[in-house]
Amino acid sequence: MPRGDVVRLIPPKSDGREQQGTRLGAILQSDALAPLSTVIVAPTSRSAMQTHFRPGIIIGRDSTKVLVEQLVAIDARRASETVGRVTIEEMWAIDEALSLVVGLH
After folding, report:
1. Which residues of 21-39 are buried (b: 16+ CB within 10 A; e: fewer)?
2. Which of 3, 5, 19, 75 has its CA 20 to 30 A from that of 35?
3. Which domains can be identified in the chain, with CATH numbers?
4. Tell me, what's the pLDDT at 79?
């Protein structure tokens, strides 16, 4: 799973507050870490409030937001199928938001 792929996430079995059901996520982990069994993803949401740290992307014909503030490391097996890929411009916006969220500015 290369950085920038948008994948369908298989939800964990949980009784907690994490959203249930299928969700999409953008792979943000460096390609240099591909051999690891985990991958860092940011979930997406079409209904989340628009903010400067939630860049918009287009998947197919749908507009959605990347929830950079909700980064998570998941077992790579939970990222089932690739459903799209962010453009270079969208990745620049994601990188900018990521820098803001993790305090690299």
Report:
1. eebbbbbbbeeeeeeeeeb
2. 19
3. 5-101 (2.30.30.110)
4. 87
67-84: average pLDDT: 92
Q: How far is CA 59 from CA 33, 46, 53, 104, in A?
A: 25, 11, 18, 28
Cross-strand pairs, 40: 73
Helix, strand, or coil (residue 46) = coil
Does an H or E element contain 94, and which? helix 88-101
What is the distance of C-alpha 89 from the center of its chain? 15
pLDDT band for position 22 (50/70/90)? confident
Closest CA to 47 of 64, 59, 69: 64
